[in-house]
Model the fold of this input.
Amino acid sequence: MEDNKTILIAEDSSVILNLTKKILELQNYKILTAKNGSEVINQVQNQKIDAILMDLNIPKKNGMECTKEIRSSDNKDIANIPIIAVTGNANNYTMEQFKEAGINAYLPKPLDFDMLVQTVKQYVV
Done:
């Protein structure tokens, strides 16, 4: 059996984090979590991650800053991790800004869990 794919959920809301984690675990993904931008960067550097669900409003470094830092990594495996932005404030950003930062896809809050699973499956093969 192949190894489960690893998804990093970057989210500072425990409720959203736990719901998202449960939904993705039911799809047989291994889940790592980060409550702030520093933890995101630390996780990415220390283990293989197949995709990141990135809340844009996390403390320390926001999701856009984390995405730009990941994209600028010298390690191609890190720089190419699919990043799915999750935010309740998408109006603060344009699709152009998402693309420039290196975000692959975007999910609005409140999360549609069917769309969440479909989007993750699109990037994690």
Summary: The domain at 6-123 is CATH 3.40.50.2300 (Rossmann fold). The mean pLDDT is 94. The radius of gyration is 13 Å. Residues 5 and 29 are 5 Å apart (CA to CA).
